[in-house]
Design brief:
mainly alpha, 4 helices, 0% strand, elongated, disordered N terminus
Length: 82
């Protein structure tokens, strides 16, 4: 089993890198500017939804809904990436 795992690792690394590239591309091309900004603040800057809301002047629930919609959109896009 260990030999198989070592042999599969390079393919996994390539798959992960391709997925990361596709995710970056999808974030730029498929999201609205508002969705992209909220995802950036929430995931990349590691702010809470409440902090994101305060920074952008919206409620926490608006941030939550916007991020959920963006995640669904990205999942749909990435489903066809392989």
């Amino acid at each position: 089993m260990a030999v198989y795992m070592r042999a599969a690792a390079p393919d996994n690394d390539e798959t992960i890198e391709r997925l990361k590239r596709n995710l970056r591309l999808a974030r730029r091309q498929e999201l609205t500017p508002r969705q992209a900004q909220m995802l950036y603040l929430y995931f990349d800057r590691e702010m809470t939804m409440e902090q994101v809301g305060k920074k952008l002047g919206v409620t926490k629930s608006t941030v939550s809904r916007t991020i959920s919609r963006a995640e669904r959109r990205l999942k749909r896009c990435l489903r066809y990436a392989f």
